[in-house]
Request: fold
Amino acid sequence: MTREQRLADAFVTLAGSTAEGPLDIPGTLSVLVNHAPSLLGARAAAVLFAPDGYEAAHVAGSDADVSRLELEAVGWREGPGHDCHQAEKPGVQATLDSLPNRQRWPHYTPRALELGYASVAAIPLREPTGTSGALVLLSGERHPLAPGELAIGQSMADFTAVILKRAREADHSRTLTAQLEQALTGRVIIEQAKGVIANRRSVTPDEAFELLRKHARSLQRPVRDVAHEVVDGHADPGLTGPTEMTPDV
Reply:
């Protein structure tokens, strides 16, 4: 398979990772880091995805050591991925054994060198509203990545950011729709229960709702749950039975 075919396969797989089913951010990030090294001339890759801040950051790596390194970098608040994401710069390329980078990343640099990496490049994950993370490429050689490889890497990173943004928006929309449907269903059930109570106890709908609400509160249960029991015919007879009449004297 040629490089062009492998690149096309990477984009198709990335697109397919968010096409169906529930949102799977780790799965999409894994596709990116598993394809990136061979396509971009790197030895390993990691990705940081943190559109909502580091408290909800997602990290993936092409191997366990790289994944652990990038996860630790999130805690250290340092490293090329952190700088690229926070500064929203076009990208970062660095030789790891240089004194400035040892000082710049006091935790990240020695750990990366220990793993056998000599240079690193970080590419931002850009979406229309900003930068949502960074793709980190690690190499055992000291020379920087070629401009063509960085350009392809930027395209892969941007594509990943955009499809994840759209997938997150779609997931949020589905969640909101489900909540609205649930609220509507609950309201319909409550209205039906009001009708049952009003008819059986010869009260107005507003009075029926007040009886329903007070009964649910006395049981420390949601009004909707008690309304379901009323409609299904399983409610406490004290709620749905006729109002006791006081005999005439």
